[in-house]
Design a protein that fits this description.
The termini are far apart. The protein has ten helices and eleven strands. It has two domains: about 90 residues, Rossmann fold; about 120 residues, Rossmann fold, CATH 3.40.50. By secondary structure, the protein is of the alpha/beta class. The chain has a six-stranded parallel beta sheet with strand order 1-11-8-7-5-6. Bound molecules: guanine.
């Protein structure tokens, strides 16, 4: 059986991150300040803790100074708004990231709306989501869609005119990714929890992107021969980290496929580093 091309998010991330580091090093040599990212974690969600630590570590490696805020589970919306208000005007902070999901007593949309859009490196503020609709380059594209776009570009997978099927229409990935893929000229189908007979759609995909968090939702009989398969899911199954895609079986059908871990995950963090650098360069007029 033919082995597919593995879309190696770790390798591609390493390449992009080394270029980010070179740029930041050159700014530091010119005597400029360090780029800064504030990362806010509310509560004790173990997965969120891992993601936040990965982001902080990745910042350190490329020379971005990070400011980590760990707030208790019972934090109120007002307390979080007060912190964001301080960070919005802090000259050392180029990016503000509030790790999602937030505890249920906090109004997530109110928090996102309070972030200065010019520091919204997650790209979740309505102004940045709106810029994705308007296709203006000066907004921030959410990190996972941006990372997927860069991964596809790296492997010269062109999107123009392609049939892209996205499974999952969440706020963080599915919805902004739909807009970005449209921007790139793809014909996009979006499937979600209410979609009847998912397979009917996934089988049409030249590029299939799954972002549901349902372990092994995508089976081999749901994938067209020669498709490019992008797996955004990260879940635990029998103590193992798995994606939305039944990788071991689907890989023989796919022309190219992302592994989990080591596919989209690192690209998301790379997207965040790029957005933070973009914000810094804009603030410093570079
Ligand atoms: N939770 C899951 N993915 C993300 C992300 O990209 N950004 C934030 N802030 N929270 C998340």
């Amino acid at each position: 059986m033919k082995e597919p091309l593995i879309l190696d998010g770790r390798k591609v991330s390493e390449e992009i991150r080394s270029k980010i580091k070179e740029k930041i090093d050159s700014y530091k040599e010119r005597g400029l300040r360090d780029p800064g990212l504030a990362v806010i974690l509310v509560g004790e969600d173990p997965a969120s803790k891992i993601y936040v630590n990965n982001k902080v570590k990745a910042c350190a490696k490329v020379g971005i100074k990070s400011f980590k805020f760990e707030l208790p589970q019972n934090t109120t919306t007002q307390e979080l708004l007060d912190l964001i208000s301080d960070l919005n005007t802090d000259p050392e902070v180029d990016g503000i990231l509030v790790q999602l999901p937030l505890p249920p007593q906090i109004d997530q949309q109110e928090i996102i709306n309070a972030i200065n859009p010019s520091k919204d490196v997650d790209g979740f503020h309505p102004q940045n989501m709106g810029k994705l609709v308007a296709r203006t380059e000066d907004g921030f594209i959410p990190c996972t869609p941006l990372g997927i776009d860069l991964l596809l570009q790296h492997y010269s997978i062109n999107l123009k005119g392609k049939d892209v099927v996205i499974v999952g229409e969440g706020f963080i990935v599915g919805r902004p990714l739909t807009l970005l893929m449209l921007w790139r000229g793809a014909t996009v189908t979006v499937c979600h929890i209410h979609t009847r007979d998912l397979k009917r759609f996934t089988l049409q995909a030249e590029i299939l992107i799954s972002a549901t968090g349902v372990p092994h939702l995508i089976k081999e009989d749901m994938v067209k021969e020669g498709a490019v398969v992008i797996d955004v899911g990260i879940s635990k199954k029998d103590g193992k980290i798995v994606g939305d895609v039944d990788f071991e079986k689907v890989k023989y059908k796919a022309k190219a496929i992302t592994p989990v871990p080591g596919g989209v995950g690192p690209m998301t963090v790379t997207g965040l580093l790029l957005n933070t650098l973009k914000s810094y360069e804009r603030r410093e007029r570079l």
